[in-house]
Amino acid sequence: MAGYVNDLSLQPVRQSIQAVIVFERRVVVVVYAGAMALDITGPIEVFDTANRFLAPEGAPYRIEFVSPEAPLVRMSSGMKVEAAPLEAGEGPIDTLLVPGGWSLNGALQDRALVSWIRQAAARSRRVASVCGGSFLLAEAGLLDGRRATTHWAYSESLAGRYPDVTVDAEPIFVWDGPFVTSAGVSTGIDMALALVEADHGSACALQTARFLVLFLKRHGGQSQFSAVLDAQLADHPPIRAAQEWILDNLHNPLPVAEIARRANMSLRNFARVFRREAGTTPGQYIERTRIARARELLETTELTISQIARRCGFVAPETFFRSFGRTLGLTPTEYRHRFQLISPSGFIDPHPHPHHETDRSPV
């Protein structure tokens, strides 16, 4: 069996496996003191639930925990996880899972742990991280030259500490070759569902999501947008006031010259200070904010695409489609089909704003 798993570990993540019989998929979870429990329990519950829906010929997930602090490791919440020593993680691995946690700085200074992760990754078919776990992968040199994500609050820190890593703060998870990095905490569940789908198909992943009462099975293109935009509100009063004015006037044209005038700044100086304070140009901020509002309306209302485009300040639906697709890799209709927030009770507000629309064209 070890031979079969070893053959599997050499296969690219998304390549179909030919003439290889896999009896089980070994998932090794790296645990360290102070790690966040949900970073660990979220993904492993997905794998364990998927096992219950696999046909007899499906290769189940076998989950193991290893830790430098074995046998009992205390999580940040106080929960204790029973784990084997790192040495027990030797041999071929299907999926290596690395969580984040409030004690991440201490874990990064544990050279033996970082070295073990580097060596274990070399014998793993794929390597996945949740939240701050991407820091451990980067510290081990595994993400150099690759695209990765992490919790939005720490994306700048990851980019600054590891300049050879291309950090994208927006997606909920990023898949680059054999490495899959996810954003904050609960996105490890979305990532694990994507791994199940890659291994066993969409039907198994959907059954798993339904059983876990996950109303939305989000793909990696789903964004941390609202949190990122909140984080970009500047401390500098004129720029913050300009951002708040933009948020209140998205349905109107927003020429940058007009916003600069309201901030009592020249256009050139306003653009320079805005970029310094917000980390993006005024035009990029406006477009991102329009898309964030559009996402909210697509998720929570039954307004038509044309109505949403107008409420978010796009002069034509075609402009909206181009901007939305460029940002999220989906059309507005595709996004709505995936992510509209309709609960089992049918709660959805079709008219979240007081003014009325006359356009009733179909989506």
Any overview of this molecule?
The protein is of the alpha/beta class and 363 residues long. 45% of the residues lie in helices and 12% in strands. It contains 16 helices and ten strands. The protein has a six-stranded mixed beta sheet with strand order 2-1-5-6-10-9, sandwiched between helices. The protein has a two-stranded antiparallel sheet with strand order 3-4. The protein is globular, with a radius of gyration of 23 Å. It starts with a helix and ends in a 24-residue tail after the last helix. Residues 1-20, 225-231 and 342-363 have low confidence and may be disordered.
Q: Provide the spatial order of strands within the biggest beta sheet.
A: 2-1-5-6-10-9
Order of helices and strands: HEHEEEEHHEHEHEEEHHHHHHHHHH
Number of helices: 16
CA(first)-CA(last) distance:
52 Å
User: What is the radius of gyration computed over CA atoms, rounded to a whole number of angstroms?
Assistant: 23 Å
User: How many beta-strand runs?
Assistant: 10
Low-confidence stretches: 1-20, 225-231, 342-363
- Using the alpha-carbon principal axes, give the shape: globular
Q: What is the residue-averaged pLDDT?
A: 83
Strand content: 5-15%
Largest sheet features: 6 strands, mixed
Helical percent range? Answer: 40-55%
**Strand pairing plus helix content: what structural class?**
alpha/beta
